[in-house]
TrEMBL record, chain A:
Domain of life: Archaea
Domain 4Fe-4S ferredoxin-type residues, every copy: 27-56, 57-86
Protein name: Ferredoxin
Lineage of producing organism: Archaea, Thermoproteota, Thermoprotei, Sulfolobales, Sulfolobaceae
InterPro entries: 4Fe4S_Fe-S-bd, 4Fe4S_Fe_S_CS, PorD_KorD
Keyword Electron transport: yes
UniProtKB/TrEMBL annotation, chain B:
One GO BP: response to oxidative stress
GO molecular function list: 2-oxobutyrate synthase activity; 2-oxoglutarate synthase activity; pyruvate synthase activity
Name assigned to this protein: 2-oxoacid oxidoreductase (ferredoxin)
Catalytic activity: a 2-oxocarboxylate + 2 oxidized [2Fe-2S]-[ferredoxin] + CoA = an acyl-CoA + 2 reduced [2Fe-2S]-[ferredoxin] + CO2 + H(+)
Protein task: Catalyzes the coenzyme A-dependent oxidative decarboxylation of different 2-oxoacids such as 2-oxoglutarate, pyruvate and 2-oxobutyrate to form their CoA derivatives.
Ranges of residues in domain Pyruvate flavodoxin/ferredoxin oxidoreductase pyrimidine binding: 20-243
Phylogenetic placement of the source organism: Archaea, Thermoproteota, Thermoprotei, Sulfolobales, Sulfolobaceae
């Protein structure tokens, strides 16, 4: 634990019900790897910086931090990303 | 005092500050060029390109981003530096309040310059003084030597565990940034022992925290209260650090500087480069038998109220010289001094001069004091 001096404004965030994103996410992006051309646009555009190229050179979404904004699905030229509702 | 044989360099103010920054070894710099600060940035870029300063130099598209970049780097644990001037400082303002409120150690050198409109590139203090409520420690240098010394002090003050607050070191645009003076510099090893690498860190990946969180009204006022207390604590810390610096350099520093005001009847209060002109005027007036002194405000925030009260308690009248004005209110230094002297019944006259670089000479100081003594000085005078 870091020793933050008194009076410095910090917060210790808690986990939300949908993971580390808190209660933000309603829809979850799911990549169809058959359609994906590995163009990396989704990585570039992800506002939360949560998509990464993994060793197998496919984009992988870190759902702990994905906010479900859908930008990746919008920019994907091959429509490989589908937004799936997470509302129960 | 111990006389030390020191390395002396001929440096313009901007290069003196850059030299101090190089010796302070920041890991991240982010500076956007603006007149009259530009040559400082160029010097820093040169140090980095030659490998003399091993720092990440982030090239940004604006001052707002420059402050944002050093803010983030400072949160992550780096020693950081930025510099700006005038409208650039205004453009940076939004981030300046974030950095101040979050209380991250940042050092910013401000080459003071008048604000638009009308457009101008010359010196006054309106830009610097407009940041007085941003939770930054603010100090002003009188000459190039002080700009060098105070840049080094600023790093240590801002990173002190009792303070942890950004520090602004102001020095008059062109008058100091572009004037060459003989500067005594410290050895690198001396700076290393005065200023060891930064310890404080907010980011630890095994223990994540949110920095700059939203606060409820209950929390907000408490956090601001803590900032107020830290600002008050910082006075002692600044004094300690200045004393420590005096031990290495032999040069004396304090929150305020008194020039012949111990027995003075009339005292000029000033801040920044023209204090030197004021001192020349004081000498001349003393030669004519007038008991005149000059009180220089070195640290503007936290404002050294008690010190000023103490130093001015026996004077007959005070004249403040302001290079900045609060429109609809009055000279800013004048207002601060009046509030510091509240209840002491000492008349405070306010002189507004030098706005937008308008030349002010020792004779101007002299005339004002002569008018004061003969009872001809108004409560507020503009030297146009
Ligand atoms: S934008 Fe679409 S096609 Fe391109 S890498 Fe991402 S998922 Fe694959
Ligand atoms: S939905 Fe938004 S946050 Fe989530 S991966 Fe796509 S772009 Fe990133």
């Amino acid at each position: 634990m870091i020793n933050v001096p008194e009076g410095i404004p910090i917060a210790r965030p808690k986990l939300g019900s949908a993971g580390k994103t808190g209660t933000w996410r309603l829809d979850k992006p799911v990549i169809n790897y058959d359609k994906c051309t590995r163009c990396r646009l989704c990585i570039l555009y992800c506002v939360e910086n949560t998509i990464d190229m993994k060793e197998d050179l496919f984009p992988l979404i870190d759902y702990d931090y994905c906010k479900g904004c859908g930008v990746c699905a919008q920019v994907c030229p091959t429509h490989a990303i589908e937004m799936v509702s997470e509302v129960k | 005092m111990q006389v030390l044989k020191r390395k002396s360099l001929a440096l313009v103010g901007n290069h003196a500050v850059a030299y101090a920054v190089k010796q302070a070894k920041p890991q991240v710099l982010s500076v956007f060029p603006i007149t009259p600060q530009t040559t400082m940035l160029e010097k820093l870029a040169e140090y980095v390109s030659k490998g003399e300063l091993k720092a990440e130099m982030i090239r940004v598209e604006s001052e707002h981003s420059a402050m944002a970049a050093v803010y983030g780097a400072a949160v992550a644990g780096s020693r950081v530096f930025t510099a700006t001037s005038s409208q650039g400082l205004l453009y940076m303002t939004e981030m300046i309040y974030w950095a101040g409120g979050q209380r991250v150690p940042i050092v910013a050198a401000i080459a003071t310059r008048a604000l638009a409109e009308p457009w101008t590139i010359w010196d006054d203090h309106q830009d610097f003084i407009s940041k007085r409520d941003a939770i930054w420690i603010q100090m002003m240098a009188e000459n190039v030597q002080e700009a060098y010394d105070m840049t080094l002090q600023a790093f240590k003050i801002s990173e002190d565990q009792r303070v942890i607050m950004p520090v602004m070191m102001g020095f008059d645009g062109f008058i100091l940034t572009h004037t060459m003076e003989r500067v005594e510099v410290l050895e690198d090893s001396e700076v290393d022992s005065f200023l060891p690498p930064r310890q404080f860190n907010l980011i630890d990946f095994s223990d994540p925290v949110g920095v700059g969180p939203i606060a409820t009204p209950d929390e907000y006022i408490k956090i601001r209260y803590e900032a107020k207390k830290a600002m008050e604590r910082s006075k002692d810390v600044i004094r300690d650090i200045m004393k420590e610096y005096e031990k290495i350099s032999g040069r004396k520093y304090d929150l305020v500087e008194c020039y012949k005001c111990e027995d003075a009847d009339y005292v000029i209060v000033s801040m920044g480069a023209w204090s030197s002109d004021g001192k020349v005027a004081v000498d001349r007036l003393r030669n004519n038998g007038e008991k005149v002194g000059l009180l220089k405000i070195r640290v503007f925030r936290p404002f050294p109220k008690e010190e000023i009260r103490e130093k001015l308690k026996d004077v007959k009248a005070v004249v403040t010289f302001d290079r900045a004005y609060s429109f609809g209110s009055g000279g800013i230094l004048a207002n601060e001094i009046k509030s510091a002297l509240y209840g002491n019944n000492i008349p405070v006259h306010s002189v507004i001069a030098g706005l937008g670089g308008k030349d002010v000479r020792p004779l101007h100081f002299q005339n004002v004091i002569e008018d004061l003594i003969s009872g001809k000085l108004e409560e507020e005078r503009w030297i146009l």
